[in-house]
């Protein structure tokens, strides 16, 4: 951690700022970095984060892919300073994904795709 | 809504992108705009949004105040395209607040301050 004059107040043991989540690294089961959190999809009424949309690949912003992960897939790892996903990178790469500007309709059928692929119930 | 070639996929009837929440207007009970959502504070483990930190006032980024509202205080209003808080602006202005770079410790005692002031149980 940098030794700066300002104390990092964007995080406590329990809560994290949405500004800090964006850009947080995401690692796969084998420890390699998969990508980083680009943004979150949040339930409007209940304020529950449903998915973290992880960005992967790309160069100078071109060709970046996004793949949404159910929030329950992410476990925050203090030591690594990022999220661990207990999946193989290959499985993630085969998962639902989309390119920038080709965002899917975030509807029930897309939710179903994600749920079936990851085998988890979306919160 | 603008008539553009890209369809707005950052929102469905149920979920909203964290990119879109940031900057959303927040209105008080009498309909006047209080400020806008600056960022969210999210529970790391459960992915539950606890507070929306609303920015108010300021000019060219100077002198802006932030006041955190429990997520349960915000109701999304489709017609107005923003959140309504069923409080008087005066009550909000007297609530817990802080200036940029003077962020509080987001700990249990701060949570308690917010809970007592707003009389709601934080999710």
UniProtKB/TrEMBL annotation, chains A, B:
Domain of life of the organism encoding this protein: Bacteria
Pfam families: PRC
PRC-barrel domain span: 14-88
Region entry Disordered, spans: 1-29
Bias kind Basic and acidic residues: ranges: 8-22
Name of the protein described by the UniProt record: PRC-barrel domain-containing protein
